[in-house]
Amino acid sequence: MTVQHISSVQNLLAQMRAAAKAASSLAPVHHEQVPAGSGSFATELSRSLARVSSMQNEAAAQARAFQLGEPGVSLNNVMIDMQKAGIAFQATIQVRNRLVAAYQEVAGMAV
């Protein structure tokens, strides 16, 4: 390795350590604990979709605020919220895919 490569690797490691330190100072995420049997599957599914939609709307609003240069909106928070919304959306797509696969399996069963 050349000296340039070593210094760029060290810079990358320093950035990763700084990001890890910043992430460790964030408040932990608290998930709602819903008692079993408190709602139907359709109700829970619609609540989950509403939460994902809310996350996407909040991320878009923060991105818009950052683009407009509003004070107190940092690029780091905008990017984190955008990633959270993207991950939530991808998880929703996976749930949908599994539901469709389960439905197709049940529909294909002989009676």
What is the average per-residue confidence, as pLDDT, rounded to a whole number?
84
From the N-terminal CA to the C-terminal CA, the straight-line distance is: 66 Å
How many beta strands in the DSSP annotation?
A: 0
Question: Percent helix among the residues?
Answer: over 70%
Give the topology string: H per helix, E per strand: HHH
CA-atom Rg in angstroms: 21 Å
Q: Report the oligomer.
A: single chain
Largest sheet, strands/sense/barrel:
none
What's the arrangement of secondary structure elements?
Elements: H1 3-24, H2 41-67, H3 75-107
Helix pairs in contact: 2-3
Keywords:
single chain; 111 residues; mainly alpha
Describe this structure in words.
The protein starts with a helix and ends with a helix. The model has no long low-confidence stretch (mean pLDDT 84). It is extended, with a radius of gyration of 21 Å. The longest helix has 33 residues, at 75-107. It is built from three helices and no strands. It has a domain at 39-111. Helix 2 runs antiparallel to helix 3 (75-107). 74% of the residues lie in helices and 0% in strands. The protein is an all-alpha fold and 111 residues long.
In short:
The protein has 111 residues and is mainly α.
